[in-house]
Design brief:
The chain is mainly alpha-helical. Strand 1 and strand 2 form a beta hairpin. Helix 1 runs antiparallel to helix 3. The chain is elongated and about 60 Å long.
Amino acid sequence: MATNSNTSSLEAVSAARWRVALSLTIAMMAVYFGFILLVAFDKPLLGRAIAPGLSLGMLLGVLVIVAAWVLTWVYIRWANTHYDRHLGGLKR
């Protein structure tokens, strides 16, 4: 019966990984497409200068890249602390 327990545990861990990955993917898509929609529909806003040589569009573009790094870090951190630990705990 340990096989059924391992199978259900593996399915639970796999489902959790899927939920985390899907949530982070949706978050990244919202950030990216939000930026693209601003580029498409509000160019004057993005052209507004925040500081000499720095427009709002440039700042937001950099923040999109930073958001990708942060969301990747969140996934790696989650995988290292939860996913790998649960997989390691499954008996073979």
